[in-house]
Amino acid sequence: MSVPPIKLSQVTLSMLDLVPTRSGHTIAEAINESVAVAQHVERLGFKRFWLAEHHNIEGIASSATAVLIGHIAGHTQHIRVGSGGIMLPNHPPLVVAEQFGTLATMYPNRIDLGLGRAPGSDQVTMRALHRRPEDADHFPHHVQQLQQLLGPPQSGQTLKAIPGMGTRVPIWLLGSSLFSAQLAAKMGLPYAFAAHFAPRMMQEAISLYKNNFQPSAALAAPYVILGVPVVVGDTERDANYLATSGQQKILNLFRGTSLSLTPPVTSMEGLWLPHERQGVEQFLAAAAIGDSAQVASTLHALVAQTGANELMVVTDVYEQAARHHSLSLLAELVKS
């Protein structure tokens, strides 16, 4: 029995981008390619285009996240652009409020502020950022402080984000475990789960969030974004071929080498050891890879399992024309 097609009335499409560099290409090309893919998914009807903060990782060029958000927003018309996310332990809340308040002033009703609790880097990089591991313990307080700085001015308020005050930039909490799910529920904030790299606790975290959600001035009912790796091909064979670039990237992550995307290969056999293959497959366990019918079936099952309101796809494909085509096929299958 075939799985019913996904309808846009059931799920919204968005995209997460890390400004991936490609072997043999420059960082400037990677930035230009991210602008082009943002423009492409905007034409396809995607709702959001988010960028993620990472530092000191060769192959990922999205470290200056707020700068890139402004660049992407300036080269698009209406798609929402935001962070997926800003790693709050790396930054004073006032600075984040000022940055995103400025963005919201320049691009009204188009900016999202997704916040992560992890530092998004190693210990050496954390020290270079003048951060400490215990800074993550202040995450709930700093989220509240950001809400105040981006909210309407209060009588007697001495600390103000200018720009920022009164912009009410939407705040999202991101996570791959239970902590942010519980905090998002308590604070009445929307929640994004990172199943694109840590699917193991997906169902438990989303259920915890929904079951404990407390309505707030920001949100009346729980709202879930699910990050998902997606590669759609004209055929299953095409999709599996294109997806090997992403598999090589995760393999290199495990090995501690460059994460620059490499060209696809006809087979991963001989490139990884058995335990490495198992690790990559676990990392990408929520991935939807195949032809349109296969990807529709996988995504329908994920939505049915989690009740996600929105899918935020990560599409690691080496050739940009093939990446655009994959995203076009995805948009078509969701509309069908």
Index terms:
336 residues, 11 helices, single chain, 8-stranded parallel beta barrel, alpha/beta
Short description:
Helix content is 42%, strand content 15%.
What's the SSE blueprint?
Elements: E1 12-17, H1 27-44, E2 48-51, H2 65-74, E3 80-87, H3 93-106, E4 111-116, H4 123-128, H5 139-150, E5 171-175, H6 179-187, E6 191-193, H7 202-211, E7 224-232, H8 236-255, H9 274-283, E8 288-290, H10 292-306, E9 310-314, H11 320-335
Parallel strand pairs: 1-2, 1-9, 2-3, 3-4, 4-5, 5-6, 6-7, 7-8, 7-9
- CATH top-level class: Alpha Beta
> How much helicity do the residues have?
40-55%
SSE-based structural type: alpha/beta
The main sheet orders its strands as 1-2-3-4-5-6-7-9
Main beta sheet: 8 strands, parallel, barrel
| Count of distinct strands | 9
Distance between the termini: 18 Å
How many domain regions?
Answer: 1
What form results from the Cα inertia axes?
globular
Q: In percent, how much strand structure appears in the residues?
A: 5-15%
Following the backbone from N to C, one meets helices and strands in this order, namely EHEHEHEHHEHEHEHHEHEH
> What would you say the CATH architecture is?
Alpha-Beta Barrel
Residue runs with pLDDT of under 50 for 5 or more positions: 1-6
Q: CATH superfamily name?
A: Luciferase-like domain
Remind me, CATH topology? TIM Barrel
- Give the overall average pLDDT: 93
Q: What does it look like?
A:
The chain has 336 residues and is an alpha/beta fold. It has one domain: Luciferase-like domain (TIM Barrel). The protein is 42% helix and 15% strand. The protein is built from eleven helices and nine strands. The chain has helices at 27-44, 65-74, 93-106, 123-128, 139-150, 179-187, 202-211, 236-255, 274-283, 292-306, 320-335; strands at 12-17, 48-51, 80-87, 111-116, 171-175, 191-193, 224-232, 288-290, 310-314. Helix 1 links the parallel strand 1 (12-17) and strand 2 (48-51). The longest helix has 20 residues, at 236-255. It is globular. It starts with 11 loop residues before the first strand and ends with a helix.
